[in-house]
Design brief:
single chain; mainly alpha; 2 domains; 16 helices; 84% helix; globular
Length: 361
């Protein structure tokens, strides 16, 4: 039995490595349309179970449900791209252009006040440190790089054409994946060695739970937080609160990304709002960010993600940094799902290792 388990473990590892190598080769061959294919796979995965339930409840044909769902989704995306994206983009550009002014206000107004307060409390701040902070000139570099990077997105014709082509390919790719889902599933199942069907099924089930929690859960949490940030920052009257709220909420797909982005962008807006001497706006923004974080920790994340298998924030951040450095934007987007799959594969292989002859001897 032990030898058989050892054999199963080795075969399972080789099979998973073969699957990974096959996907890597396919991705390299299809790299011009890899973004469209990747988004189509994610979208079809998210829609597969709702479409199956709709088939049972409505009795409609599968093709009809798929076409209706895709039409509704892409209509909403087009409307968002026409009415939501342009004002958010303009506000983001204007906000980034204010970074030098924000740094200047901090250096000339808030820094002397802060150093004076520290001195009155008995903390001796070296004068050289204050001078170094006042002469800190990295803000202009940050502003110029961010602005040029964002404007280059729209000014580069090849990038724009490639983006439009990939976007146009997403609906047909998603439709084909959903229509042929069962056939694809049976095809992959027939390729699995018979002796590995049971561990592969267990691994697939646990991976599915993890991916549901990671993809659906984090996207849902990000959408809820975007609404909360936008409403709260608009309520306290923060300039550019509309863009800051939506961008901060979207950054929630990265652990703690919403917190850092909300603080950074809100600080720029406060320092350049013309009310730098008044603390009411800062207190209001701080209260909104703190309130959203409390709601996220106590209600939003527990209700949406709950106790389902997920990825630890430290592992998520490490995966984002490593895969983002290698694969760029798509490495960042696929880092957490990839970490969830690797985590579940690791958990599935541990029992085989513990029962192997190599471990027992």
């Amino acid at each position: 039995m032990v030898n058989q388990r050892l054999s199963d473990g080795a075969r399972l590892v080789l099979f998973l490595l073969g699957i990974f190598a096959s996907f890597a080769l396919i991705g390299y061959i299809l790299r011009p349309i890899l973004s469209a294919l990747g988004l189509s796979i994610v979208l079809s995965y998210l829609l597969s179970k709702p479409i199956q339930k709709s088939e049972v409840y409505t009795g409609w044909a599968r093709n009809k449900i798929i076409i209706s769902a895709l039409f509704s989704i892409f209509t909403c995306l087009v409307l968002a791209g026409v009415f939501v994206a342009p004002p958010v983009y303009r506000q983001l550009i204007q906000l980034i252009e204010k970074i030098p002014n924000a740094v200047f206000t901090f250096q000339t107004v808030w820094l002397p006040h802060l150093l004076g307060k520290l001195g009155s409390l008995g903390f001796e701040v070296p004068s050289s440190l204050g001078a170094e902070i006042r002469n800190f000139q990295v803000a202009n570099q940050i502003e110029s790089r961010l602005t040029s990077g964002l404007t280059a997105i729209w000014e580069s014709a090849p990038i724009l054409i490639s983006t439009l082509v990939n976007a146009a390919l997403i609906p047909p790719f998603t439709y084909l994946l959903l229509v042929h889902q069962k056939r694809t599933f049976h095809f992959i199942q027939d390729l699995v060695p018979r002796g590995l069907l049971s561990p592969i099924r267990r691994l697939a089930l646990t991976a599915d739970v993890a991916l549901q929690a990671v993809i659906k859960g984090h996207l849902s949490v990000a959408a809820v937080l975007a609404v909360l940030y936008t409403f709260g920052l608009g309520l306290v009257g923060l300039p550019f609160g509309y863009a800051i709220g939506l961008i901060s909420g979207a950054c929630r797909i990265i652990p703690y990304g919403d917190l850092f982005v909300a603080i950074f962008l809100s600080a720029i807006a406060i320092l350049t709002s013309g009310s730098a001497y008044e603390s009411s706006l800062g207190i209001g923004v701080f209260s909104v960010i703190l309130g959203v974080q409390i709601l996220d920790a106590l209600i939003v994340t527990p209700r949406i993600i709950g106790g389902r298998l997920g990825v630890h924030p430290i592992i998520s951040i490490a995966a984002i940094i490593s895969l983002g450095g290698v694969f760029g934007f798509w490495g960042v987007m696929l880092a957490i799902p990839s970490a969830a799959l690797i985590q579940q594969a690791w958990r599935g292989l541990i029992p085989l290792y513990l029962e192997s002859k190599f471990y027992r001897e």
